[in-house]
Amino acid sequence: MHVDWIAVDWGTSNLRAWAIRDGTAVAEAASGKGMGVLAPDAFEAALLEVIEPWLGMGPMRVVASGMVGARQGWREAPYATVPCAPTETGAVRPDAADPRLDVTILPGLAQDKPADVMRGEETQIAGYLAGDPGFDGIVCLPGTHTKWVHVSAGEVVSFRTFMTGELFALLSTGSVLRHSVGGGWDDTAFAEAVDDAMGRPEAIAARLFALRAETLLSDLGTGTATARLSGLLIGAELAAARAYWLGQRVVLVGETRQVSHYARALASLGAASETADATQATLAGLAAAHARMQEPS
């Protein structure tokens, strides 16, 4: 297979790679060997397992973003400090024993006050801006650690991270609420919980335990409990992030199900939002970084 270069999205849990020819992804491969399960000296072998069928005899340019550039990754790519373009400078090139590999790792972004960091999301932001370079507003990236990002004049101005997705996972699997949540969903319960948390975010700890109490006393269904749990957590997040979305143009970039929850929550508060495909944004961001590398210095 003739390949021009290889795009890589390397997170904590997974590694995804795309073979690019003439600006189009012609093949895709993935593995579960994310940063979280690899020692620094194991990254090259993990990458080769995925992309070796695409390699030729000479060096192949590989552009990677995400946790591969973390302190525990293949090689640390120091954070660029905002305000700055989402992917512009600070890329690093890890040592590779295989002469067929020419790897570049993109940096993440950091904010001093309040302290915050991101790795991987900046590439999606760059990809979105590649299609809408004049965008001025908020890019929200729902996920395990949801990012609210203020973008203006092609730069990330500021951002805040909320551990909402991780809190949902911990509460639904490792707390007393694991006995209450489960399959199913209830749109009305979700919207009511968002409104409840927005109105009284200080009461969220009590409202969370009420889910367990209603399960015991009123036979609350698992679908309703799950929707309420999600709504309470997202509602508390929206209350804290109000300055980011109120009166702003908001674009949601992420996995379809998570994006739909945020879009529904914002709509219930009278705020419109747009959506963008996360994979397409990632690929566009990696392509933009690759294009800059081809420019004469």
Task: Kindly describe this structure.
With 297 residues, the chain is of the alpha/beta class. The chain is 38% helix and 24% strand. It has nine helices and 13 strands. The chain has a five-stranded mixed beta sheet with strand order 3-2-1-4-6, with helices on both faces. It has a five-stranded mixed beta sheet with strand order 11-10-9-12-13, with helices on both faces. The chain has a three-stranded mixed beta sheet with strand order 5-7-8, with no helix packed on it. Helix 2 (121-131) crosses helix 9 (278-294). The radius of gyration is 21 Å and the shape is globular. The two termini are 30 Å apart. The mean pLDDT is 96.
Condensed summary:
This protein has helices at residues 43-51, 121-131, 164-174, 187-199, 204-218, 222-240, 242-245, 256-268, 278-294; strands spanning 5-10, 15-21, 24-31, 60-66, 80-81, 101-105, 109-111, 116-118, 137-141, 146-152, 155-162, 250-254, 274-277.
Mean pLDDT: 96
Strand content: 15-25%
Our count of helices gives 9
What is the β-strand count? 13
Q: What's the story with the biggest beta sheet?
A: 5 strands, mixed
Tell me the Rg in angstroms: 21 Å
Give the structural class.
Answer: alpha/beta
Task: Catalogue the unreliable spans.
Answer: none
* N-to-C span: 30 Å
Question: Which term fits the overall shape?
Answer: globular
* Helix content class: 25-40%
List the secondary-structure elements in sequence, H or E: EEEHEEEEEHEEEHHHHHEHEH
Q: Output the strand order for the largest sheet.
A: 3-2-1-4-6
